[in-house]
Amino acid sequence: MEKKKEAGDSSNTEPSSFKLLASFPSGLSPSQVSVAFSDAYDRIPHSDITLENTIPEIWDQRSLNNKSLFNGNKFRYGGHVLHTGGESGSEPHVCLHLGLTDYRTFVGTNLSPLWERFLVSSEDDSVLCQHTSSPLGNGAVVETIDSKILVLQRSNNVGEFPGYFVFPGGHPEPQEVGITSRQYAKELTESINIKVSQEMFDSIVREVVEEIGVPASSLSIPAFIGISRRDLNVRPTAFFFIKCNLDSKEVQQFYFSALDGYESTKLYTVPMIELENMASRMPGCHRGGFALYKLMVDTRKIT
Fold it and tell me: In total, how many domains does the chain have?
């Protein structure tokens, strides 16, 4: 089956190719994940003014063609620092570096036909993507009580990858923790880092509840398993592992009344072997999520 390219893309980059930016096969709990939210991790405008001017032009054109587009704020991924615990025996800890961006800039940089021109030649991911919006998405590998994984098939109405297989997910939302602008964010106290860190975990539960329809009470506390970035449009996504105490048939019944069910056309509940076959028809960031899940499963077998 021929892979579809994202609207507006002119690159030969494979939609399913990806890079793992961080991997935590044992899964990190909320106490092991912190956030440094700062304008130091905001996007740096490109020195090419002509290229910068294409951002509002592309947004205006897209808005004309799609009246439902809304320019909301998003958290921008600016890298991370891992503390392994070392010889002290303490548990590993990761600090996510997050800035602020918006959907308009995402459309005008990452989703632009000119997206590769915004990149900087560097092995350092934060430098490579310093001129792109790169909002941090999220995804959940949800495992039912009968050991099936939940996979959605995207509808043909969505803006990115219509018809592709994906894990449930979306974005952590700045407005959920009271961040409405960069200026307002500067006025907040250091407690905002704690709130943003909690939003990383709260948001993925919300996404699963809204897209699958299951009650939040049926879901375990998410375990953070890593970050993947699809090569196409350098789109980063944080992935979590969640256990659901319902079986696959019960989950299917809840799916019929899912709040965001319009974003997908079908819910699959599949074993690992079938998930392996579906992964080739996932966007790169979600295929990376599957790779993170496999690493977690392999770690389970060893321990």
Answer: 1
